[in-house]
Amino acid sequence: GLVLEQRWSTLLPFVPVLRGGQEPSLVVRALAMLRADERLAEMEPLLAFFATFVLTPDEVVKLMRWDMVMLRESPWYLEIEQEALQRGMQKGLEQGLQQGQAALVVQALSRRFGGVPEELAARVRSAPLSAMSALLDAVLSAQTLEEAAIGVDKALAQAGNGAS
Fold it and tell me: Measuring CA to CA, which residue among 78, 71, 10 is closest to residue 46?
């Protein structure tokens, strides 16, 4: 609507997320205005990006003759992609550490008390990384498997309350 009528060129990429912008004809008009001005051509990927909020990816491709290559080549996409990769790597590292430490706690239980009931091992394996030190302390200080299970449950309750 108003952005197109007033020819506010700097707002053209945002047309899809403005009131009424989900209408494909408005997106097409905004695209035509961007393409008509050589200085605004670099904003087309941004328009396409916002269009995906209100239109299906197939509709965006059809309306704009646009594909992911344009988006993937833009600097802001590369920055977002790098940040996502770093978050994924961090999450994977934390998950790996949690699994490794849980395996050590279960192994300590097994070595100290013989077998480990699967229910207890499952509680240890599902514990957050922040609780692992307290779990290991509970296992190493217990005299019996029952004491160890009680200590594990206490450590898990404390971790659940943010007290770890």
Answer: 71
Q: Number of C-alpha atoms within 13 angstroms, CB side, residue 29?
A: 18
| Burial class (CB within 10 angstroms; exposed 0-12, middle 13-18, buried 19+) of 132 | buried
Give the C-alpha separation, 57 to 162, whole Å: 42
Q: What is the pLDDT of residues 56-67, one digit of tens each?
A: 877 777 777 655
Q: What is the pLDDT of residues 11-29, one digit of tens each?
A: 778 788 877 777 777 878 8
Q: Which two tokens stand for residue 20?
A: 């009424």
Distance CA 162, CA 164 (A): 6
